[in-house]
Fold this protein.
Amino acid sequence: MTANSKAFILGLTGGIACGKSTVAARLAELGAIRVDADAITHELLGRKGAAVERVRETFGEGALLPDGAVDRKRLGAIVFADAAARRALEGIVHPLVQRRALEQIDAANADDVVLLEVPLLFETGMDALCDETWVLAADPETQVARVMMRDRVEREQVEARIQSQMPAEEKEKLATQVIPTERPMEKTQAELASLYQQVLKRLG
């Protein structure tokens, strides 16, 4: 897995409900080119998406919505409760996401900063593409509360999602920067701006 672009690649990750989308949007405002693995996944699993047929073959017609797109909510409930099913889905989706992400990275210019936003950045080995990695951190109880409110799901489902990912402490050990997201947003925004300016200075 390699990228031909000479752009500076900034990997962004963190546990569920740690604020990745908000932080990524702010970094895009500051000038980063956003490569969003979740958005790519939505496209792959959407109507006529490249992963739909293999999902149907692996999980059956019940995994699809009437319009032919993957039923993400139903499939999510299956894979977060069954490690083998989760690995099967990852085997379908991850290579396609990586290929699409590499295409977007390679389209960048040498003086660009590419923000590679991947929930499973370390788990999939995509951190190997990055010049720096930033991990967003939040207390587990905060994560649970945020997801229960956002997705209207039970605590057990949220905890299963959290447990399916690499422990936060391991991600933080691997990261170039750890950014807490439980404090007031103004403080997080100020730290992001400062860190991003440091990246730009290194690019000269």
The longest strand covers residues 8-14. The longest helix spans residues 83-106. Residues 37 and 54 are 19 Å apart (CA to CA).
